Amino acid sequence: MTTTDPAADFPRGTALLLVDFQDWIIERYVSVAGPAAAECAENLHRTFRDRDRLVLHVRHQVQDAPPPTLGRRGDICEAVAVEADEWVTTKTTISAFGVPALHDMLQRARIATIVIAGVVTEAAVQQTAIDALARGYQVVIPTECVASSTPAIKNEALETVAAAGVWIG
Predict the structure, then answer these.
(1) Cα 122 from Cα 137, distance rounded (Å)
(2) Mean pLDDT across the stretch 74-88?
(3) Where are the beta strands (DSSP E) in the chain?
(4) What angle is formed at CA 82 by the lines to CA 168 and CA 127, rounded to 5 degrees?
(5) Residue 57 pLDDT
(6) To the nearest whole percent, how much of the chain has pLDDT over 70?
(7) What angle do CA 117, 118, 119 make, to 5 degrees?
(8) How many whole angstroms separate alpha carbon 135 and alpha carbon 97?
(9) How far apart are CA 64 and CA 108, in angstroms?
């Protein structure tokens, strides 16, 4: 996969899943690496949009917390711009697949490959990737578009998902 035009390597039937790019998560868990991952994710997002590919945003809500602000952006960080026609959903589990409508939407759109960008690598990104594989999707994680609190933790999480069958680029 190239870093200059990553979407060029993915045919139709590929979707970009942007997971947990929320200010509070970045500040609390990945304050050092999170902003760079968000910038990389936004570059990937623009490429997917320019090529008319599906982009989905998943944000996390802690159970028993007040719901995030509704609207186009909600509490998704400004670095990852949500377009008016993009799907945004809220999860209360670690995995994005805790939202049953996600799998349904991907199936209706005939998606075979999911590119995952997000924070925190060892939590939401890792579990979403494992759950996507279990549902039969091919999964790609661009390393520059994910973040953890330390490089060692990120590398360990990426090694774990690579061993399960995720393509790391």
Answers:
(1) 20
(2) 85
(3) 14-19, 54-60, 87-91, 113-119, 138-141, 146-147, 167-168
(4) 35
(5) 95
(6) 87
(7) 155
(8) 10
(9) 31
The answer to whether residue 69 scores a pLDDT higher than 90 is no
DSSP-assigned states of every residue in 52-81: T-EEEEEEE--TTSPPPPPSSSTTB-TTSP
Task: Please report, as a single letter, which amino acid is at residue 158.
Answer: L
pLDDT tens-place string over residues 25-34: 999 999 999 9
Contact by Cβ (8 Å): 56, 83: no
Identity at 9, one-letter amino acid code: D
Beta pairing class for 167-168 and 113-119: unpaired
Here the tokens at position 81 are 């711009």
Structural contact between residues 21 and 80, judged by C-beta atoms closer than 8 angstroms: yes
